[in-house]
Amino acid sequence: MKIVVIGLGYIGLPTAIMFANKGHRVIGVDVNESVIKKLNNADSGVEEPFLQKELEKAVKQGNFIATTEIEPADAFIITVPTPSKGDLWKSCDLTYVIQAVTSILPYLRVNNTVVIESTVAPKTTESEILPLIESVGLQVGENVHLLHCPERVLPGRIIHELVHNDRIIGGVTPSCTEAGIKLYQTFAKGRLIPTDAATAELTKLMENTFRDVNIALANELVKVGETLAIDALKVIELANHHPRVNIHQPGPGVGGHCLAIDPNFIVATAPFVTQLIKEARSINESMPMYILSKVEQIMTQIGGRKITIFGLAYKGNSDDTRESPAMTIYQALQKQVKYEVVAFDPHVSLDFVEKDIKTALTNSDLLLVLTDHSAFQKIASKHTANMRNKLIFDTKGIVKHFDTEVSKIHLGNMHTLKEVSIMRR
């Protein structure tokens, strides 16, 4: 089978490679020519376990080619971004999806399958995509198949989960669903669960909304704990011993292209019956400012000047900074001329990121941990030795081992901030 995958980002590229390594001829299409060049040279450019190896295999076998040009194929899979609009409800911006679908129209033939993997608002596939497909004289469900098949993978485990996770196959008609199952069963080992397109769209959004609401509950608990002088992290730990309780972990905010965006797509389609979802979003969006207020309190109390930020990615052991609250906090601190702000992240390669951990911490007054990279579990004494004030503010609960001379504040003991003393070397 010949498959065209449009959009070679965090999801599109692994998806294309999975199909290619099962013997399909895959044409990967992207507008970024530098990305195309890298991929054809078997350079993924993405920090994701096993992806590089799988790409090398696909390119070597000749089953994957990246290009800027679309070709006729048996199946077309759309995996382009769907950002939020700048409107009141931050609704789904379909610009890239519409462009991608429009670009394949001249190449559509009878019995083709068109899959929307991009995350979209409920009923988008039927109301927005179906009319485009049928504008070229094809009949969805009769001689062409259209479906929504959302991904549900975790960065750092994308290759494994693409293959092994259960997958929702949402066809516009039952025959479209059958075509989708036939397509994905060539590499997927998890259950392929049939449903309709609109249900698949809303299911994907609710999976991420559930997590967003749960995190908001944890973040609100942090503020309650500070008010009542109770360790919120200990409360979560103990509550989760209950067999039917699973409170998520709090943090400096919610990032990534899913949790921070998807709930808004539900709100935008039903704004007057989504009070809980809206409130959860508001709580999570407030966390960067909450952390900034605590940093200000700490720095004022200790007379601090230099802040060292550990982690800019939104997720541990990832290089992905999309919608990252760590970036929001870094940028806000940078604007305050009274502070010297240095960022260190072993996974993120940006020009301003300090590559040497010792340099990043020298004369620092506060080590602010904003990402749960496993590399931050242990902060060696040789690195904190040259700090001016030996103080860690761990907003992710990742730091487990550090020098006894170093004090640590976390989201459970914020009420002890007044006890922080000056610890200059």
UniProtKB/TrEMBL annotation:
<dbReference type="GO" id="GO:0016616">
    <property type="term" value="F:oxidoreductase activity, acting on the CH-OH group of donors, NAD or NADP as acceptor"/>
</dbReference>
<dbReference type="InterPro" id="IPR008927">
    <property type="entry name" value="6-PGluconate_DH-like_C_sf"/>
</dbReference>
<protein>
    <submittedName>
        <fullName>Nucleotide sugar dehydrogenase</fullName>
    </submittedName>
</protein>
<dbReference type="InterPro" id="IPR014027">
    <property type="entry name" value="UDP-Glc/GDP-Man_DH_C"/>
</dbReference>
<dbReference type="InterPro" id="IPR036220">
    <property type="entry name" value="UDP-Glc/GDP-Man_DH_C_sf"/>
</dbReference>
<keyword id="KW-0520">NAD</keyword>
<dbReference type="Pfam" id="PF03721">
    <property type="entry name" value="UDPG_MGDP_dh_N"/>
</dbReference>
<dbReference type="InterPro" id="IPR017476">
    <property type="entry name" value="UDP-Glc/GDP-Man"/>
</dbReference>
<dbReference type="GO" id="GO:0016628">
    <property type="term" value="F:oxidoreductase activity, acting on the CH-CH group of donors, NAD or NADP as acceptor"/>
</dbReference>
<dbReference type="GO" id="GO:0000271">
    <property type="term" value="P:polysaccharide biosynthetic process"/>
</dbReference>
<feature type="domain" description="UDP-glucose/GDP-mannose dehydrogenase C-terminal">
    <location>
        <begin position="308"/>
        <end position="401"/>
    </location>
</feature>
<dbReference type="InterPro" id="IPR001732">
    <property type="entry name" value="UDP-Glc/GDP-Man_DH_N"/>
</dbReference>
<dbReference type="InterPro" id="IPR036291">
    <property type="entry name" value="NAD(P)-bd_dom_sf"/>
</dbReference>
<comment type="similarity">
    <text>Belongs to the UDP-glucose/GDP-mannose dehydrogenase family.</text>
</comment>
<dbReference type="InterPro" id="IPR028359">
    <property type="entry name" value="UDP_ManNAc/GlcNAc_DH"/>
</dbReference>
<dbReference type="GO" id="GO:0051287">
    <property type="term" value="F:NAD binding"/>
</dbReference>
<dbReference type="InterPro" id="IPR014026">
    <property type="entry name" value="UDP-Glc/GDP-Man_DH_dimer"/>
</dbReference>
<dbReference type="Pfam" id="PF03720">
    <property type="entry name" value="UDPG_MGDP_dh_C"/>
</dbReference>
<dbReference type="Pfam" id="PF00984">
    <property type="entry name" value="UDPG_MGDP_dh"/>
</dbReference>
<keyword id="KW-0560">Oxidoreductase</keyword>
